[in-house]
Design a protein that fits this description.
This protein is an alpha+beta fold and 1475 residues long. 44% of the residues are buried.
């Protein structure tokens, strides 16, 4: 009969093995195409050969090369890490974690039980097939009620001869199952006798035992006693002792005995055993005394004597060692005459002649009569002699089993007597027996030699008496498992059950069992029933086939929901970060590096607009802003330099102040060079006012400080000009006029009416022009514009089209010239509900104020300057002498924007204007705009609690984007190129209607021309997107060219909310095809969709990579390639090399065992990843081919497609600008994920070394990208401008703070943005404007409570962890979550405390006067204390380095605890160059 054992070896061995032409021009098609081709040729030909230093030999290019290398490595490592998270096997010690604790062995030791042998590794007794032998009451014993479950005794014998090669001691465990799927633990060593399987082949582990007679000689229970067991191997010595009953001396014991051991004390007495000489407190004869008795003879093992509790037992399971604890019993001697009883063979007792005949004096076995001649006495308890650590003596006449005699003596030096009477077969008396215990016919006469023979203990045999139920009556599988003692005693194996270890009835992981058992076997059958049953895993002998119990241990992975979520969010962050970092692989566009007045000759004008509204943007703010704009007048400018103040607040005092400022400018001395004097004066004036603060000149000031007033009005400037330039001597009394004009301006901004204003006529435009006294002496022109701001009924919706409640004017497009525009606007009327005003004779209604936001004012200025003002003859340039020559009147223009709180510095224009020109000095019409960073000098990085400077964007992200010309406009500090091909013969344009009305047959409406988008709150981003779609690019000038006056830092949160809200509406407008895109940009919308789908495809491929196990390519799945072709040309050539590589790695790690899981999982992962990379490279190569194909001139005449890779980079940036708000939830996820890890034990586990390796490389690459890019541009800036704007640790810290702070604001903005878009789409509402307090207070409140919740949640997490007191392994997995949560809380603590304490005006003097009770009950006092503790330089220095240091230390922490890699992995995608 087959038992199934022969199949194991084989299985084990197998298991181990623009419309036409230029994208931005239509009028100058040929010129633009030539310029593009020449620029492309420049890139194709390479660097200038006259350059002394080749590009690859300077530091900047080395940094660029390093950046590309790090970026490519980052592209490879990060997805590979995410793939590893879900593919790498879980450490084997955590396998089966869904089950109760069970000690596991290493995978190499799992091969011990998997070895083949012909017989079962553990012999189990048969399952009972009837009620006899079954305990049906175990359920009642366990639970108190009858459950129908059963158990039974099981005898086990360890039958694994080769076990001693690996294991010395094992413990028995019983598993049971009724379906072979669900297993439970039914018994363990607590139910076993003995409790372990000892090694039966090691000589040192052999044990012999002999249970002696039930009755000793009389008179041995009195007084003190020494009992000594003498073990003998020699036949001659034993026979000599056997032949005599005489006492022997202590000196003779050593001669006769091969091993001695004994006990001492007072039998049953209360006298301590230690009172006897050489007797221990436990009643053992000292080893010294034993050695003395042995004398010169060798001791061949250890001997112990134990007392049995039951004198009638045939074996002793429980015994006592101390004589004091021995229990004596009564024995009796029967003096009865009888004949010699014969031990007859079976069956012969029936023969009368051979049957023993009882004599007259024999008491019948069934008789209750007691013989009067019998006597009783007190006997020692039945004794058991244990002989351990056995060694065999050499010589002849050696027994196969040792013999033993027990001697007694009153002292160690006295004589020793045998304690048992010799059994004489010829005696007329029966041996002494315990009273009432043994019947006469049960007394067995045994020869003396046999009764003194010791038996070898079968240490590989165990009897199980279960205390738990095995299952219900019926089909049952019973498995015996031998557990290694070292595994059982390993405290690390018991993560939860520290004391009781196993719990009866606990669930057990199903087979194979060889990862837990060093030997295993099982029986099966119909337990407690005699009817045969068909059981799948049961052979004919009633054994479970071995191959069903052992085998290849199935690999377990970390493919659980938290790890999937973690990996997916990492991939989302990685994909977004790739979009952010990708532009850095390019080199910035070449441009003209130096300013020359000849450059301005190619421009029609340079316009700079300062926009003022309300609130803090009063007279002082406007003056400072205007001073900066005028100071930027480029030297010897050969085009008009137009400075325009656009007053959106429609305040009369602002116009008056502007006029008085112009009067000061007009009074600049004209002796020598008026423009030079003007520029010198404005440079000083700008320097005097650039460091002013909003709290000094803003809307909350009632009266200006005299010092500020003098600096702002120009008084101090004039004093310095007299000293610096000696104006007093040069101009003398001519300065009086300038002094008077300054005095008038000084008086205008002084007094209590500084911030008091009077409104202008609401529905009228106010436009003023200023021309210098001698227009030919300077290019400066100044204007003041304030477009109509009619009062609107609050009941009506603020819309962009003509509707009831709005103001409009009528125009006949064919008849009215654009120069009549302002006159037509003065004829505006309000549309009144229910009063019709139909259009007649070609008239069209035009909304007076189609945009209420900043963009509307900018468009108003553009229309006025470019069409109305420049159409005047006095503003025209001389016509060219010959036809075809350059006409400056038709040249492009530059449009700079300076928000009221920002002041341009004198070098702003000379730094930015060259960016619009090629290195040879010709105008580059593909440059859309330049952008300079915003700089707030009043907030140094340490005190910039809410990142007002937006430093990381301007000092890192913007520089990365600049590599492909993709920096988006940020509104202020930007300068736009207005192309000459814009129509100048009209000021009105058609726009598709968004709202249906009664005249729905008219599908368009007439509006004033728009240069900047008016359909959302981020007109700068929307306008940038238009330029990107037509192939234009930008330049980032990373210099502090503008000094801003910051609002309160908390106001920046309102700006964050506005930006996100604008991004949402703009995204929805483009996605739904409702964006007010201009010209070619509208037709190029498919480019944006192409990028969107490409990003989705990239993200989907990443998720497919880490989720799906495949070794094919997406090209096969799409049908571009067959499986056979792919396998033959790609997979087959790669597999041998991958297999060889992992074999080398496996050999380095020490080789494999028969059960070591193979590296096949890693080989497949590597092959899959290589296929993924190859697929990405093929896709990128295809994109590169397509892009270069679009360079062909004839193709670009017909299609406007990207003809350079940088264009795709700019599209990626635009996509990021539109969609970054989608990831607002990631901050919630990372916080929530760490809270989850801090509260619940992890069900995922990773190898520390593997996690550390990936974290180390990823962290290195993360910061290497930042450092290489920053260093690259620092070198460029230091060479170009001797100025460095570097990314500091504070900036990284603040950006990290923002990541966690603005999540709720962005989430809130999602709702408001969607709401605004719906209003825009269905009602035509104007959503492009905002008020000063636009949801700022809501944003502040959200951040205050959100950050407070993070800090309180962190404290609560630690308290919960302490109270819960989890086991060590659970604590190890939960502690990193608490630590990371703590770092997050520390990150947001600064802004949290700042927002709660800002505005607290309690001074130290006032606090010192308060009583203790007043302090305790004063919110102001507590706020002051909090601010003093947290918002100080020392604490800031500590906090700003904690997070960065932690980021650097994270890989090291992961080496000691892999859970840090999961808890802190977000730092690699949430900080640095990411959002």
């Amino acid at each position: 009969m087959s038992t199934g054992y022969g199949l194991l070896k084989k299985g084990t061995e197998e298991g181990s093995s623009d419309e036409e032409g230029s994208p931005s021009q239509t009028q100058h098609e040929n010129d633009d195409n030539d310029s593009v081709v020449s620029e492309l040729d420049l890139h194709l030909k390479g660097p200038d050969p006259n350059n002394i230093c080749p590009p690859c030999c300077n530091l900047r290019c080395c940094c660029h090369g390093c950046y590309i290398f790090f970026f490519v490595a980052y592209l490879v490592i990060f997805p590979l890490w995410c793939k590893w998270l879900l593919t790498a096997p879980m450490p084997s010690t955590y396998w089966g974690q869904e089950f109760a604790d069970f000690p596991r062995m290493s995978l190499k030791k799992a091969a011990i039980a998997a070895t083949f042998q012909a017989t079962p590794q553990i012999i189990l007794s048969d399952l009972p097939d009837s009620d006899f032998g079954c305990n049906s009451s175990c359920g009642k014993e366990l639970r108190g009620f009858t459950s129908g479950e059963i158990n039974f005794n099981v005898d086990l014998r360890l039958n694994k001869p080769d076990l001693d090669e690996y294991i010395h001691t094992t413990y028995p465990v019983i598993f049971t199952s009724q379906d072979f799927k669900e297993w439970m633990l039914a018994a363990d060593r607590r139910n076993a006798n003995p409790t372990w399987f000892a090694d039966s082949t090691d000589e040192a582990g052999r044990e012999y035992v002999a249970v002696q007679d039930a009755c000793s000689k009389p008179a041995l229970t009195q007084n003190q006693q020494y009992l000594m067991a003498c073990v003998m191997w020699n036949q001659e010595k034993f026979e000599a002792l056997e032949a005599t009953d005489d006492p022997i001396t202590g000196a003779d014991l050593g001669y006769y005995c091969d091993a001695l051991g004994g006990v001492c004390g007072y039998v049953g007495g209360d006298i301590p055993s230690s009172n006897l000489p050489n007797c221990s407190a436990g009643g053992q004869v000292s080893l010294k005394a034993v050695d003395k008795l042995m004398g010169a003879y060798q001791q061949y093992g250890n001997v112990t004597i134990r007392a049995c509790d039951d004198p009638l037992a045939k074996s002793c399971s429980d015994s006592a060692t101390s004589l004091t604890n021995w229990k004596t019993h009564q024995c009796e001697i029967h003096a009865v005459e009888r004949r010699l009883q014969l031990d007859l063979p079976p069956g012969m007792a029936d023969i009368p002649s051979l049957s023993p005949t009882p004599s007259a004096g024999i008491v019948s076995a069934d008789s209750d009569e007691e013989d009067e001649s019998g006597s009783r006495y007190t006997s020692l308890p039945r004794l058991q002699v244990m002989y351990t650590n056995v060694t065999w003596p050499t010589g002849s006449d050696i027994y196969s089993k040792p013999k033993v005699y027990i001697f007694s003596s009153k002292s160690l030096d006295g004589e020793w007597d045998k304690i048992y009477a010799k059994v004489d077969p010829t005696s007329e008396k029966l041996p002494a027996t315990p009273v009432g215990g043994i019947k006469m016919d049960e007394v067995l006469r045994v020869a003396e030699s046999d009764s003194r023979t010791m038996d070898l203990i079968r240490t590989n045999m165990v009897s199980i008496t279960p205390s738990s139920c095995f299952g219900k009556r019926g089909p049952l599988y019973v498995v015996a498992c031998a557990i290694n003692q070292s595994s059982y005693d390993d405290a690390g194996a018991w993560k939860h059950n520290k004391e009781s270890r196993f719990e009866m009835g606990q669930r057990v992981m199903p087979p194979p069992f060889n990862d837990r058992c060093v030997a295993v076997a099982g029986r099966c059958g119909n337990a407690c029933g005699n009817e045969p049953v068909d059981m799948q895993h049961c052979d004919a002998n009633g054994y479970i086939p071995q191959e069903d119990l052992v085998g290849k241990i199935p690999i377990q992975y970390n493919r659980v929901t938290p790890v999937f979520m973690f990996a997916y969010v990492l991939l989302f962050g990685f994909a977004v970060k790739v979009v952010m970092l990708c532009p850095g692989i390019f080199s910035p566009y070449p441009r003209c590096q130096t300013y020359s007045s000849d450059l301005t000759e190619q421009l029609k004008y340079i316009l700079v607009v300062g926009v003022t509204g309300g609130g803090d943007e009063g007279r002082g703010t406007m003056l400072r802003n205007t001073i900066g704009m005028v100071s930027g007048l480029p030297p010897d400018c050969k085009c008009h330099f137009v400075v325009c103040n656009n007053e959106e607040g429609h305040r009369l005092e602002m116009l008056t102040c502007w006029e008085k400022f112009c009067n000061v400018i007009a009074c600049i001395p004209q002796s020598g060079s008026y423009e030079q004097n003007l520029r010198s004066f404005m440079r000083i004036w700008c320097d005097e006012t650039k460091t002013m603060r909003l709290r000094q000149v803003g809307g909350n000031i009632k009266t200006l400080d005299p010092t500020i007033q003098a600096r702002l009005s120009g008084k101090t400037t004039l004093d310095k000009a007299k000293k610096m330039y000696d104006w007093q001597n040069l101009f003398g009394t001519s300065l009086t006029k300038l002094q008077n004009a300054i005095d008038v301006l000084h008086e205008e901004i002084g007094g209590p009416g500084y911030n008091k204003f009077s409104p202008m006529t609401p529905h009228h435009d106010y436009v003023r022009d200023w021309v210098p006294p001698n227009p030919h002496q300077t290019a400066l022109r100044m204007h003041f514009t304030s477009r109509a701001k009619p009062t609107e009924d609050s009941r009506n919706i603020m819309v962009q089209h003509v509707a009831p409640g709005t103001w409009y004017y009528k125009v006949k497009v064919d008849e009215h010239h654009p120069t009549q525009w302002l006159e037509l606007r003065r004829k505006c009327v309000e549309m009144v509900y229910s009063q019709a005003d139909p259009d007649r004779d070609g008239e069209r209604k035009v909304p007076l104020r189609s945009s209420h936001g900043k963009a509307g004012g900018l468009n108003f200025v553009d229309n006025y300057i470019s069409i109305v003002y420049n159409h005047r003859s006095e503003n025209q340039y001389p016509l060219p002498e010959e036809e075809g020559d350059f006409d400056q009147n038709e040249a492009p223009s530059l449009y700079a924007i300076a928000d009221a709180r920002h002041q341009f510095q004198p070098d702003f224009f000379i730094s930015c204007v060259p960016c619009f020109f090629k290195p040879n000095g010709s105008l580059n019409t593909r440059v859309a705009f330049t952008q300079a960073p915003q700089h707030y000098p009043e907030y140094a990085d340490k005190r910039d609690y809410l990142d007002n400077n937006n430093a990381q964007f301007f000092r890192l992200n913007a520089m990365i984007r600049n590599c492909c010309g993709g920096v988006s406009s940020c509104g202020t500090n930007g300068m736009w190129q207005l192309h000459a091909d814009r129509p100048t013969n009209t000021i009105w344009q058609e726009r598709r209607k968004r709202v249906r009305d009664r005249d729905d047959y008219i599908r368009t409406e007439l509006i004033e021309r728009e240069q900047f988008h008016t359909s959302c709150k981020i007109e700068d981003t929307a306008s940038s997107l238009d330029r990107v779609l037509v192939g234009e690019y930008s330049h980032f000038v990373n210099r502090k060219l503008s000094f801003g006056m910051s609002k309160d830092p908390e106001g920046f949160l309102g700006a964050q909310q506005r930006w996100v809200e604008g991004a949402i509406t703009l995204c929805l407008q483009w996605v739904t095809n409702n964006a007010d895109a201009h010209g070619t940009a509208a037709r190029n919308q498919p480019l944006l969709w192409a990028v969107i789908f490409a990003f989705i495809g990239f993200l989907a491929s990443l998720m497919r990579l880490v989720t799906k196990q495949y070794t094919s390519s997406v090209f096969v799945e799409l049908g571009f390639m067959t499986d056979e072709t792919f396998d033959k040309q790609i997979a087959s050539p790669l597999k041998p090399g991958i297999h060889w590589l992992y074999n080398v790695l496996l050999d380095i790690r020490g080789g494999s065992s028969s059960n070591t899981y193979s590296y096949e999982v890693y080989e497949n992962m590597t092959l899959q990843f290589i296929v993924f990379l190859c697929t990405c490279m093929v896709a990128f190569f295809g994109l590169w081919l397509f892009t270069n194909f679009c360079r062909i001139r004839c193709l670009r005449r017909r299609l406007l497609m990207p003809f350079e890779m940088k264009w795709w980079g700019r599209l990626l940036i635009s996509f990021d600008n539109l969609t970054y708000w989608i990831w607002f939830w990631t901050s919630f996820f990372w916080i929530g994920f760490n809270v989850y890890l801090a509260i619940f034990p992890a069900r995922f586990h990773f190898h520390n070394l593997g996690m550390m390796s990936f974290m180390l490389v990823a962290t290195f690459l993360n910061y290497a990208l930042i450092i290489s890019n920053s260093l690259r541009f620092q070198v460029m800036e230091s060479i170009d401008a001797n100025e460095i704007a570097f990314l500091s640790m504070d900036n990284i810290w603040r950006a990290n703070q923002l990541f966690f702070m603005v999540g709720p604001i962005q989430g809130f903005s999602v709702f408001t943005g969607v709401k605004n878009f719906i209003n825009y789409l269905f009602y035509g509402q104007d959503i492009g404007g905002w008020s000063g307090g636009d949801l700022t207070q809501v944003s502040i409140a959200i951040v205050k409570w959100w950050t407070s919740m993070i800090i309180c949640g962190c404290i609560a997490a630690w308290i919960y962890l302490y109270i819960d007191d989890p086991p060590a392994d659970e604590y190890q997995s939960r502690r990193p979550g608490c630590i990371i949560f703590t770092f997050i809380a520390l990150d947001v603590m600064h802004p949290c405390i700042y927002l709660w304490t800002v505005g607290n005006n309690l001074s130290s003097e006032e606090a010192g006067k308060m009583s203790c009770l007043a302090k305790a009950t004063s919110a102001k006092w507590w706020k002051k204390i909090l601010a003093d503790i947290v918002l100080n330089e020392s604490v800031t220095d500590v906090l700003r380095y904690i997070a960065p240091v932690y980021n650097f230390m994270l890989p090291i922490l992961v080496f000691f605890n892999a859970y840090f890699g999961v808890s802190g992995g977000f730092t690699l995608v949430a900080v640095g160059a990411g959002h």
